[in-house]
Amino acid sequence: MFLDLAIAFSCAAVGLCCGWVMHGVGWLLSSDEFAAGQTSRVTAELEQVKAEQERLSIVADRLRDYAQKMAIDVDEHQHNVKAVSDVLSSDQSLTADAMIEAVNDLIEANETMQTKLHSAQKRIHAQAEQLESAERRAQTDALTSVSNRGAFDEHLTRRHALGPGRAGTLMLLDVDKFKKFNDDYGHRAGDEVLKVVAQMLHARLKSYGIVARFGGEEFAAIIDGYTVDECKKIVESARVAISQHTIDFEGKMLRVTASIGVAETIDGESAAQWIERADAALYHSKDHGRDCGHWMNGICPERICLDDEDQASEPFLIPEVEDRGPDDAEMQKDGETRRNSSKASSVEEEVPQDKPKNAKSSFDDELKAKPSTDAEAAKAMSAQPETQSHPKTSGSKPKKGGAKPSAAPADRGAFAGLPGRAALAGAFCELQERSKAIGMSTQIMALRVNGQPAAGSMRTLLQIVRATLLSVDRIGADDANTLLVCIPGVDEEAALERAEQIRASADTVQFAEAADGSGSTLQIEVVQVAQTETFDEAMTRLADCFVSPVPASAG
């Protein structure tokens, strides 16, 4: 009897041990498979970067070859011209036919050189465009189409060098429980989540600073030209918008939440330490329930809260759908392209507060809802201040507790959600440095509608202009009738082409009658900014181009 019981218990114990061992082995295999999947994705990204570097090297070699060939052609032309010159200047008396032949040789040499120069110029221009496009792709995350980590690190270094009070405010955002999307619905679902989050951040924060994929499911942004209290509202409004959206993935409704950490740089800290403090604020949000934000007040994390009015009106929201320009489309040819553009556009807009959180909105619904949405945004933005790009050095101090600034800006009507001229001037210096680094110019475009245009038509104009913007461009508003666009790294011809593209698209917009009674009420002017010229000097020149001038100084 006892022997039978002992045998039974022994068999049970052996079975439990075997089961535990098999479970451990299965877990290890699962972990190995996950690690292998992660390694393959990292390897694929590294291969893509390597391919881009090789392509850049090939294009650069071609440019050097063209330059050498042009030098040879110029030498040959100089030799031919010298030969003709020697004949004409010789002491020998020349017949009329000999003189005519010498002149014809000179004309032929000039025409041949002109043809070669024109052909070389076209080839170099094409190669330069490929080089610029490859450079943009090298700085763009292939999956999400926002800036990648390398581009962000360069931008962070430049901003940090400006010092406390001028560097801006750093935000790190992490998608909560991201691995669950991959585990439950597959990696395609995870990719879709990252795309949607990136699109929403880009649409809302682009006008305030850079947005980048920091790594994995983390994103980063630097907001410049605003006080820390304003920056907290800007990024928290974007985070709340993400948390209020659901993503329709193959019929499954995915709800995404995110946590953020915010920090200003302080005296004596490095760029890496700046990131560490923002990261500490982010993980404080993770440790306190996720779906929230904290900012580092020195070394003390504090919760970011929006009051009811902020949540209802979202004063820093950029409601218009952000379309990609032609250059951005080119950037995506070799990378990950957007699928189902109507769905992608619909998630860039926030679900209105009076709808359920899981409600879906289409692109057409967003366009129909824009008048009320923009009207609310304009009303809420009427109290937004026109802050200087260096708020601390100008004597303004952030108010504790997220109190609203009391300064009232000039009325910008339907453009109230855009940065004003002072904020745009703050970003201009960095754009100038970027243009100088690649040997190109910065252009400033002003679009002004005379008379008293309807708010709806101005919102339509803003959408048209935004559709032409690239990730490096900056847009702002000077008043209710005037849009300003800073375009770095392009020549005047390219800027004028973009202006004509906007004008052609705006021909269908019904503006109010101009003050002078003329039929065309939209005026677009472009000025090329010299490398030593300031923003205000360029704006003064731009004002002279208008029939109804842009004010020479910000209101």
TrEMBL record:
Keywords: Coiled coil, Nucleotidyltransferase, Transferase. Residues 166-298 form the GGDEF domain. It comes from the Bacteria. Residues 384-393 have a biased composition (Polar residues). Residues 321-339, 352-377 have a biased composition (Basic and acidic residues). GO terms for molecular function: diguanylate cyclase activity. It is an enzyme of class 2 (transferase). The keyword ATP-binding does not apply. NCBIfam families: GGDEF. This is diguanylate cyclase. It comes from Novipirellula artificiosorum.
